Structure formats: C-alpha cells, structure tokens
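Handout, page 2. Input:
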Amino acid sequence: MTYVTCYAMHLAVNTFVRFKYYFKMTDFQALMMSFLKALGFIFIPGLFIQRFWLNTQIDWILIGTMLVMLFASSLTILFQKKSVEKEEITLKNGYMHLKIVAIYIAIIGIIQFLQTGAFINGI
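Output:
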C-alpha cells in the first residue's frame, strides 16, 4: 500500500497542477478533483487488490493515515505553487513534485516502522 499511496500522491500532485493552471479551476475545485482522481484511479483499486487478491489484513489506522497524506500532498502543492502563473514541464518542477511525495512517503514509512514494533524487536 505504500507504493500505491506514493503513486496516488504523484497523480494527485500532477492532476492538481493541471486542473488549476490549465483548466482554470478554483483552488478548492482543483484540490478536491485531484484527491478524488487519485483515490478513485489508484488508491481504492490498490486497496481492493491488497485485501481481496493478495488476501492480506488491512490496518485501517495506517490506511487512514495514508488518506490524510494523500490529501496533504495536493494541499502542499497548492502552497508551493501559489505564485506560479503557468506550470511548465521543467526539471525544477518535477523535482519539487518528487520532493513533496518523498516527504510524505517517508512519514508513512516511519509510522509503519513504529507500528510493527520492529524497533523493539531489533529489526
């Protein structure tokens, strides 16, 4: 689910930029549409695959945390891009998107690590 969340965050960040700057949506509309797109296209299908195809137990607290992080990734790009007129495909913008996703995935990884008790059991 961490990989699925990472991919969903990346989609949400890029979709937010597209909706905001190319389709001229308001901040709220772009934020909600990017979150719903990432949720519907990647996160929920990933959750179904995890539960029903791989037949694994789902930790709902971690899933809730991942949903918050998914929403926060679009919110962060909103704050990062508040003064940008147009999104351009540049290395700088790609790096900024990657940095946002990496920070949130690191937080999820730390939470997973602490939840498993691996730090107590000596990995």
